Amino acid sequence: MTALVQSPADARAARLDTAPPAVVVDHVFKTFRLPHVQYSTLKERLLHPLRSTTYDELKALKDVDLTIRQGEFFGIVGRNGSGKSTLLKCLAGIYRPEFGTVAVNGRLSPFIELGVGFNPDLTARDNVVINGVMMGLTRKQAIRSFDEVIAFAELEEFVDLKLKNYSSGMTVRLGFATAIQMNADVLLVDEVLAVGDAAFQQKCFEEFNRLKAAGKTVIFVTHDMHQTERYCDRAMLIERGDVLTIGEPHAVARAYNELNFGRLVTDGAETGRYGDQRACEITDAWFEDAEGARIGEIAQYERLTMCARIRFHLVVEDPVVGFSVRNDVGHTVFITTTEWAQATTGRCEIGQELIARITVDAVMSPTKYDLTPSVARQGGADVLDVREDLASVYVHGTRVTGGLIDLPHTFTLEHGP
User: Fold this and answer.
1) Between the CA of residue 310 and those of 125, 283, 293, 321, 351, what are the distances in Å?
2) What's this model's pTM, rounded to 2 decimal places?
3) What is the CB neighbour count within 10 angstroms for residue 402?
4) Domains delineated in the chain
5) Nearest in space to 323 (alpha carbons), one of 310, 314, 313
6) Dihedral Cα 194, 197, 198, 204, nearest 10 deg
7) Could you report the per-residue pLDDT of 356-387, keeping only the tens digit for each?
C-alpha cells in the first residue's frame, strides 16, 4: 500500500479550515456624508445659521460579510476608492459601521496609515512606549520591546529625534516595527509599505513568513498581485464597497487584472489578456531548446529559452518586458523583467518588432508550465499588454520530488567522533 504524503500547502489549508474565527465581519455597511457646502470658519457658520445643509452619500462598504480564520494570511485587493482602507479602519475600531458588526478575537495591531497613532512632537522612544501601552502592554513590557523595535526599524541613530523630522520612509519603518513587536494575534497591514525602500520592504516580507509560521493572523491590503499570490491563503476583491469575490489568491488576482485592464475576447472565446494594446501588442510567445528550435517539451536540466514577440503601434521609450512561469496547479515558479535584470530595451519605433528572450536551465520539477509575457512602460505600473498562459512546455524527468524545482546538488557528509 502506498501512503499519500500531504504537501505543506495542503496541510496548512486543512489546518485553516478547522481553525476558529479570528475576525468576523457580519453584514457591515458604512456610509459617509459629503456636504455640498462646507464651512471653513466659525464666522461663516454664524453668518449663515439657516443655510440648508445638503449632502451626498458615499456608500463605502455595502453588506460586507467575511470570516477570517486564526493563522490565516488574508489579502484585500481593489482599486483606489474601493473601500479597502475603510474596511481596515472598521476592523481597527477607528470607524463604526451603521449596520452590521465586527468581532476580533485576540489583541489587534493596526498598521493602516502613515503616522497614525504617532505624535510628531515626541521622539521615537516616547512614541513606541505610548503605542505599546495603547495596544495593551504594560509600561514595563513596552519599554522592554523598544530595543527590538528600533533594531528592526534600523533607526538606532534617530531614537531621540522628534518624529516631525522623520522622512516618510523612516516613519514607515518605525510604524511597522512597532506593530509587529507587540505580539498581537491579528495584524492589519495597509499598502503604506510601498513608501519604504526596497530593502526594507523585503525585510517586511520576510517578517510575513515568520508571522505565518508563528500562526499569526495577517490581513494585508495591497495593489501588488504578485505579493497576494505569494503570501496569502485567501484573498478578497472589493470594488466601490461591494465584495466581488473571495477565494484562491490566483483567481482573485486574475479578477483584479480583469477589473483594471479588461479582458480581451477573441473568436467568441475569452483569453487572459489585459491592457488596451494601443501602444503595442504581444503577437507570439514560445519556448526554444539550446539549438533555437521551437519546442513543446524538454528534459530536466537542459537549456531552455523563453521568447516573446512584441509589435509597436506607438513610440515607446525603454518598455519593460516581463516573463512569468506558472506550473500546472497555478503556482508561480519564476518571474523576471528587463527592469529587474537591468536590461535596456531602448526606443521602440512605430511598426517595429522586438523579440525578447531569456535562457535558463530547466531545473523545474517534471510537469507542464505556462508562460505569461507582459510589456509595460517604464516603472512597470502602466501595463500595455499581458497575455496569460500564451505558451506551454512540458518538462520531463526521471523523478518527481514534490518540490517546485529540482536544483542540481551534492551532499557532503561528515561523521563525528
Assistant:
1) 54, 6, 19, 9, 10
2) 0.66
3) 10
4) 20-35+55-259 (3.40.50.300), 265-396 (2.70.50.60)
5) 310
6) -70
7) 999 999 999 888 899 999 999 887 668 899 99
- Amino acid present at 247: G
Q: What's 5's DSSP letter?
A: P
Quick one: pLDDT at residue 126?
86
Question: Strands (DSSP E) along 227-293, which ranges?
Answer: 234-239, 242-247, 265-266, 269-270, 273-274, 280-288
Of 182, 201, 176, 158, nearest in space to 114 by CA: 176
Q: What is the largest CA-CA distance in the chain?
A: 94
* Cα(119)–Cα(124) distance, integer angstroms: 9
Counting Cβ atoms within 10 Å, is residue 10 exposed (0-12), middle (13-18) or buried (19+)? exposed
Low-confidence residues of the chain, pLDDT below 70? 1-7, 36-53, 113-116, 192-198, 261-271, 380-381, 400
Closest CA to 173 of 143, 211, 145, 202: 202
Report DSSP letters for 161-179, one per residue.
SBGGGS-HHHHHHHHHHHH
User: Which cell numbers in the block locate residue 203?
Assistant: 525585510
